[in-house]
Design a protein that fits this description.
By secondary structure, the protein is an alpha/beta fold. It has six helices and five strands. The chain has a five-stranded mixed beta sheet, sandwiched between helices. Strand 3, helix 5 and strand 4 form a beta-alpha-beta unit. The relative contact order is 0.18.
Length: 149
């Protein structure tokens, strides 16, 4: 059976996340406009920096719970990497949709709001109520993907 567009893009984002070098959570992101893929991203260290699979996870070593103290991570989130990839390539993502394997954190939510992305379709939960309230306040449509269309 032919997948819906959401199923199709969510399947792709599941493949994208396999490139992640995070020891805690692999996340993938895909930015789409008019059914065309504009940019992809996964979580990992910045270009030219050692990845957590080489250095170990600082947040794990410090016992920091998920959703807290983002600044103590070597990695860049998948959504951030996708937005940066689009900017680096000069691709406008205004009025696009971002597919993500996990609910965005507040840092990613703020970037999504300011980047002009109009809709988020995500799969897994993430403990960040502030992110969800800011996305609602900014009028960003947020949809939890349930695998059915």
């Amino acid at each position: 059976m032919r997948p819906s567009w959401d199923e199709y893009f969510m399947d792709i984002v599941e493949l994208i996340k396999t490139r992640s070098t995070c020891l805690r959570r692999q996340v993938g992101a895909l930015i789409v406009k008019d059914k065309r893929i504009l940019a992809t991203g996964y979580n990992g260290a910045p270009v030219g920096c050692r990845h957590c699979i080489e250095t170990g996870c600082l947040r794990e070593k410090m016992g920091i719970p998920s959703g807290q103290r983002h600044e103590l991570c070597r990695g860049i989130h998948a959504e951030q990497n996708a937005i940066i990839q689009a900017a680096y390539s000069g691709v406008s993502i205004k009025d696009s949709v971002i597919y993500v394997t996990a609910q965005p954190c507040v840092l990613c939510a703020k970037m999504i709001i300011n980047s002009g992305i109009k809709k988020i379709i995500f799969k897994g939960d993430y403990p960040d109520e502030l992110a969800m309230s800011m996305l609602e306040e900014a009028g960003i449509e947020v949809v939890k993907f349930d695998g059915k269309d």
